[in-house]
From TrEMBL:
Chain positions covered by the region annotation Disordered: 386-419
Entry protein name: Periplasmic binding protein
Signal peptide: 1-24
Membrane-spanning intervals of the chain: 424-445
Keyword Transmembrane helix: yes
Entries under SUPFAM superfamilies matching the protein: Helical backbone' metal receptor
Source species of the chain: Coemansia aciculifera
Coiled coil: none
Keyword terms: Membrane, Signal, Transmembrane, Transmembrane helix
Keyword DNA repair: no
Length: 474
């Protein structure tokens, strides 16, 4: 292919969907995009074009001489780049997973970087023009002029869609093949664990929530990211589009009263008293006597257990890159007998007795062998139906755990009547009295089991530690 001929749009579209690997004069690798994450990559002999289809901007990458006759490309970068700036935490996580942490030369707030493997004393503060770096990854396509490259910053993408942007970042280092292999492993693990949660006898009810004070709102989060995570972990709930009126605290409380677990991303500020702050924010004056399972059993969870020494949450930096690990955290909370050896990384039980977070250190993150780039295999299984913690205490310790009884006749996993708090299905109309009594007795027995299980969960060693998905403590 001659380098002095522009590629028509139609041909570029064909190139984007061709064979898995195509090499040209620059030895650029052709990468398949799997999840419709909002970008595509078009590869030619001596350049590649990264199309951010969400922001409608195209970035050109070249290895030798910048092409001069390619229409529609707003910014050009010579690759591989050797110095990077970041205004968005996930960029640092992508660099870590790709083994390129040493290329991080500037950030908007260097002190807020949570990666212990980066020497923050050598990371400069970005000046708004990209001085001293080749590219600046940001949530704003124009934050640093011609050096700016946008990465997604909201939760409109599913966990795997967001993680696939590692291929986009990898293109600036010519590491597309490495990124593809890593993402394929992450995707396979995520999908495997997700599949293993589809055989639960009774799905737990869980909601993702957030309170804001300016303006005052009480939100049930139904963005693609949170919604997909909960569903993949086997949870269900009765809210598909959030609240009609998110300024009404009574409406919020009514909507989540069937919850067995609540996952919170409120920007809590009163460290050491955050559970009290949470109750106050959401209007619970006597939480232990509300008759609501997640309150009684203190099953309120957050995602900022893993922090820097200054209390900055690691979640936005590492967790978005590794959705397979986040999913395993969620499953370990909802179904603790699924994998008893899993150690929670980001999930923290706000309803616990303490608010101790886990500081990132050499004892839990090895810079020489970083777990960010290592994916454990998952074994597909159809035999896990949910385990009872109270029964588990007397079991032999099998990884499968004891099977949990189903609260709903017929095993309707998605029913709004399912859950661990003892929700009772409607009576059987026209049934004989003795049958009806038997059914009622069975439901009360199951309710006792579920409450015992939730109580046992509240006494396990998940222990108190704490998010806002984007919170920082300064």
């Amino acid at each position: 292919m001659r380098s002095d001929i522009a590629i028509p749009a139609a041909l570029a579209t064909l190139l984007c969907c061709g064979p898995h690997i195509v090499l040209g004069a620059c030895n650029f690798a052709k990468t398949t995009i799997n999840t419709s994450p909002g970008f595509n990559i078009v590869v030619s002999d001596n350049y590649k074009i990264l199309n951010d289809t969400t922001a409608n901007i195209a970035y050109g990458l070249y290895c030798d001489s910048q092409p001069t006759n390619i229409d529609g490309v707003e910014r050009w970068f010579k690759v591989p780049v050797d110095s990077v700036g970041t205004r968005i935490p996930i960029a640092s996580g992508f660099l870590e997973a790709l083994g390129q942490r040493a290329k991080l030369a500037a950030a908007d707030y260097p002190a807020n970087l949570t990666n212990i493997c980066i020497d923050k004393s050598k990371v400069k503060t970005l000046d708004g023009s990209g001085t001293g770096v080749n590219v600046v990854f940001s949530n704003n396509a124009s934050s640093d002029g011609s050096k700016s490259v946008r990465l997604p910053s909201n939760d409109s993408l599913t966990p795997l869609q967001r993680a696939e942007w590692i291929k986009f970042v990898a293109a600036f280092f010519n590491l597309e093949e490495q990124a593809s292999k890593l993402f394929d492993s992450i995707s396979a693990a995520y999908t495997c664990h997700q599949g293993n949660m589809q055989y639960l006898k009774s799905a737990p009810h869980a909601y993702w929530v957030e309170y804001t004070d300016s303006p005052t709102t009480y939100q049930i989060i139904t963005s693609a990211y949170q919604k997909n995570l909960l569903a993949s972990a086997g949870a269900t709930n009765t809210s598909t589009d959030g609240l009609v009126d998110n300024t009404n605290v009574a409406a919020f409380q009514a909507a989540v009263k069937d919850a067995d677990f609540v996952f919170d991303q409120t920007q809590l500020k009163k460290y050491g008293q955050r559970i009290t702050e949470w109750y106050s924010d959401f209007g619970y004056k006597d939480p232990q006597n509300q008759g609501v399972s997640f309150l009684t059993q203190r099953n309120i969870w957050r995602m900022d257990k893993y922090t820097s020494t200054t209390g900055v949450s690691n979640y936005p930096e590492f967790a978005y890159v590794r959705p397979d690990l986040v999913l395993q955290d969620l499953i370990s909370v909802l179904e603790p007998t699924y994998n008893k050896t899993h150690v929670l990384r980001w999930l923290f039980r706000l309803g616990g007795t303490t608010e101790d977070t886990t500081e990132i250190s050499s004892s839990n993150y090895d810079c020489a062998k970083p777990w960010m780039s290592v994916v454990d295999k998952c074994t597909a299984r159809k035999d896990f139906h949910g385990g009872d913690v109270d029964e588990e205490a007397s079991s032999s310790g099998s990884n499968n755990g004891d099977k949990e009884d189903n609260d709903n006749e017929g095993g309707n996993h998605g029913s709004s009547n399912s859950g661990r708090a003892g929700k009772i299905a409607g009576g059987v109309i026209g049934a004989l009295a003795v049958v009806g009594l038997a059914i009622v007795a069975t439901h009360y027995y199951n309710r006792h089991k579920r409450r015992a299980r939730a109580r046992a969960l509240s006494e396990t060693a998940f222990g108190g530690e704490s998010i806002g998905l984007h919170s920082t403590r300064r």
